[in-house]
Amino acid sequence: MTRKYSLDKDQPIKREDIERYHLLKLSEVIKYTGAKSPFYRSLYAAAGIDTDEIKSFDDFSKIPLTEPRDLIGRPQLFCCLPQSEIFRGFSADGTIDSVRVFYTKDELDRIVASIAAALRTLGLRRGDVLQIMFPPEAEWGCDYLVSRAAEACGASAVVTGHDLLEGQVRKIVEHKSTMLIGSNPYIYAITGLAEGRDLDWLGIKSIIMSRGCNYFPFDESIRREVEAVWGCNAYDQYGTIETGLAVSIECKAQDGLHINEADFFVEIVDPESGEVLEPGEEGELVFTTLNRRCMPLVRYRSGDISNLIEGKCRCGAEILRMEGVKRKIIREDERKPSRLSKTFL
Ligand SMILES: [Zn+2]
Hints:
Radius of gyration: 20 Å
Order of helices and strands: HHHHEEHEHEHEHEHEEEEEEEEE
Bound molecules: zinc ion
CATH architecture of the domain at 105-252: 3-Layer(aba) Sandwich
Shape: globular
CATH superfamily of the domain at 105-252: ANL, N-terminal domain
Strand content: 15-25%
Distance between the termini: 48 Å
Structural class: alpha/beta
Mean pLDDT: 89
């Protein structure tokens, strides 16, 4: 008999339901990657992992961690689908020595849907105009994915790329923009150009400061500076090139970043020993993708240091959250591609 589940919007999803979903998905991901990817097949074999026997989170935690240097120069070994099904690749800096990740069109559509969900969380609605301050790219780049997500919310979008402050202000006025999104360092840089002037007359409702794949120290003092100049709330958003941008975002309560648990299983590990840490303990963020068919990531080290937050957010949602990334580890023995991305900056 097939059990049917339905979600009552008045009934919050329980933590144990999410854990059951995660375990089911993780078990599927390990079977799938073990069968389809040469890299994972040899990783599991070398560690003595039986891909049919992932029955608990403890079983899962025995799988070795993976990391950027596993990917560099040989992304095809991670691929689980034939090349003909790859729709778009993204790379950290456009060279063969950098991390490269491939997606099918369906996967990019799913990323659009998750970005749209994040934008709705921050109140993007019909009638709003999202000004996207990412550099314009080749087809299906980050700017395009975010534009489509805005349109899925009923809003419109305008891509203004990187420009000095005056250029962005002109475009805000011209397009009647109501919300801004750009990379964390870029927004901070143009905010600095305001030199204390108030920009609240522009009527911007909120600013999303995207971490992209480019680490930049975001702390409360930076948030306060940006909010003071623009006269609105600034929100932290986190994703990496490998995870495809939309991992987590703050809600209006600014009480930690809500994690997209439908698409990611997130762990915090001790960066030295690789041991899984408890929520609240500071360590390295490690991701497993739950719905990627082309190039799934399993226990992939981000190099980003943060901690998980359990319990209710101030917005009322009982959702796993993370604090903003506090610092990045660059490993000595790792080849170091530039983290400045042409695609996800
Ligand atoms: Zn919240």
